[in-house]
Amino acid sequence: MSDAGLVLLDRPGQGIVRLTLNDPQTRNAISSDAMIEALTGALMLADNEPAHRVTILTGAGRAFCSGGDIKQMAAREGMFAGTPEQISDSYRTGIQRIPRTFARLRKPVIAAVNGPAYGAGCDLAMMCDLRLAADNARFAENFVRLGLIPGDGGAWFLPRVIGQARAAEMALTGEPVDGPTALQWGMVSRCVAAEELPAAALAMAAAICRNPAAAVRMTRQLLRESPLTDLETLLQRSATLQGLAHQDPDHHEAVAAVLAKREPRFRGD
Question: How many Å separate Cα 232 from the centre of its chain?
């Protein structure tokens, strides 16, 4: 498969970009340089489109993402080759580009988890702003079962989604969590039948797109910053962004629409 086909990009609705990990033979593993480049490039490409509002990330075939390529691990190829120092550098310049890319995004990403999300695939879902799961989805922070640790930043992301206790349970046992359990634990917003997942993800994306674009971006920014800072700093940041929001024409239009009891007509940028 050509590198260009490793991540498919389509636009299923106004303001919505859908990215599909497209390497079913490896269950959409994300450990190769080619896949890392394709994924990070597609995320930034979508985020920089002026008309783009929300990204949906999903997987082709039966899996969302299997994380590292086990065959490459066995052969000690690619990012799994070399001395400890060389492997460390491969992680820093390779798969760790993915969480750094997510940190640079301005617009929300919805993970539509259509099947197993194991290892770095589980962490990839946790990097997204929202997660929906098919009822046949499985999440596993299973690095320890391979004698490894979450080298992609999973130990940072997972506790922030489900809490320290459940993150420790997943990471130290390696046991998978099914879709209904993920919903119960707050790992995902919704768990739906597999055939309903694409429509559910589109509906959530459309609901986000109905809101003013600047307010969505700033709200996402605050949600991303909140675990990293203290209350006073976040209050100051919120006041700064709110001052900008009050001057946005879409805010004025939203207020006018409420008073006139009509649908708002936002600029869409």
Answer: 28
99 close to 157: Cβ distance less than 8 angstroms: yes
Q: Which residues of 60-82 are buried (b: 16+ CB within 10 A; e: fewer)?
A: bbebbbbbbbbebbeeeebbbee
Residue type, 73: M
CB 55, CB 107: distance < 8 Å: yes
3-state class (DSSP) for residue 223 = helix
pLDDT in tens, 165-216: 999 999 999 999 999 999 999 999 999 999 999 999 999 999 999 999 999 9
CA distances from 185 to 137, 170, 217 (A): 14, 12, 26
Buried b (16+ CB within 10 A) or exposed e, 17-28: bbbbbbbeebbb
Distance CA 6, CA 217 (A): 28
For residue 211, how many C-alpha atoms fall within 13 Å in the half-sphere facing its CB?
A: 15
